[in-house]
Amino acid sequence: MIGRRLLSLAVTAVAVTGLLFLDAPAWASDKPGRLNVVWHPSEPRIGDVAWVQVPDTRGARAVEGSVAGRSLSFFPYGDGYAALIGFDLDGKAGPQVWRVAVVRADGDPLTRQGRLKIRSRSFSVQHLTLPSVMVDLDPETERRAAAEGERLRALTRMITPERLWRGRFTRPVAGESPGTGFGARRIINGQPRAAHSGTDYAAPRGTPVVAVNDGRVALVGDYFFPGRFVAIDHGLGLYTLYFHLDAVSVTEDERVTRGQTVGAVGSTGRATGPHLHFAAQLGSARIDPAMLLGLDALD
User: What does the buried/exposed string (b/e) look like for 229-252 if buried means 16 or more CB atoms within 10 Å of the residue's CB?
Assistant: First the structure.
């Protein structure tokens, strides 16, 4: 670990069109080169997934960083390193402090810090009417649903230290129509409910559902709200979830590749008709799947 001492060093930042160049600390000023930190995009929104690039650090002994106190998981990229970061759909807009620290091969550390502007975002409001048995749960069903939700949250808190995904992410179902509903504030039978944390793809029952990128099947289950589902661990804290499946065609701990069929569209769980609820989670952040699918290729 690079100690907190390195991350707390005073630095001076000059922002130039989203690229931050920061002067080296005085005690390291006799070393050539500067540490560049580039954000993609430079001003992410609530619900977005962004990535930070630290180029020209090939051969570094260690790279660490954080955003608003949340640790970044760096991986080799090009001639340097990169890391993904998600901004939860219920998060707050405004500046967030980021820090990056690099120990070079010669043992000489460099640190940089700055502020990343998180933009606000408006979400739709959906008024839904469902059978009362699907909304007003009896105590036993409520306990079951709460326990299942906690198991899913515990799963996505586990971070595999290896990056399993590569390149672009593909759609989980065939077609060109964009998914809908991410972040929608739902009012069900007149009662406000939690925001919709995934994207819904309408498709006929039995339509193949595929893994959006390489990974490991972390969990297969049949829960009250999601019905039959598959959760895929893509490494470094990134998970994708496939809900309401009619059938599942993979097993836990199985390694899957981008485009491999993992199940079929259905209407299991709390669903009024066949569709795929596709969700993505990065660390504790519930992120917009559309942003994940549009992410720049990171081979």
Answer: bbbbbbbbbbbbbbbbbbebebee
Please give the domain boundaries of the chain with CATH numbers for all domains: 4-118 (2.60.40.1930), 125-293 (2.70.70.10)
Sign of CA dihedral 151, 291, 114, 100: positive
- Asked if 46 contacts 120 with a C-beta cutoff of 8 angstroms, the reply is yes
d(CA 180, CA 1): 41
Token pair in block for residue 257: 């590749």
Per-residue pLDDT of the chain (299 residues; tens, 9 = 90+): 434 333 333 333 323 223 332 333 222 223 445 689 999 999 999 999 999 999 988 778 889 999 999 999 999 999 999 999 999 999 999 999 999 999 887 777 899 999 999 999 988 887 777 777 677 788 999 999 999 999 999 999 999 999 999 999 999 999 988 899 899 887 877 777 778 899 999 999 999 999 999 999 999 999 999 999 999 999 999 999 999 999 999 999 999 999 999 999 999 998 889 999 999 999 999 999 999 999 987 88
Amino acid letter, 95: P
Query: DSSP labels for 158-203?
Result: ---SS----S----SSSSSPPPB-TT-EEEETTEE-----SEEEE-
Helix extents (H) in the chain: 4-7, 132-135, 139-156, 289-293
Cα 134–268–232 angle (5° rounding)? Answer: 120
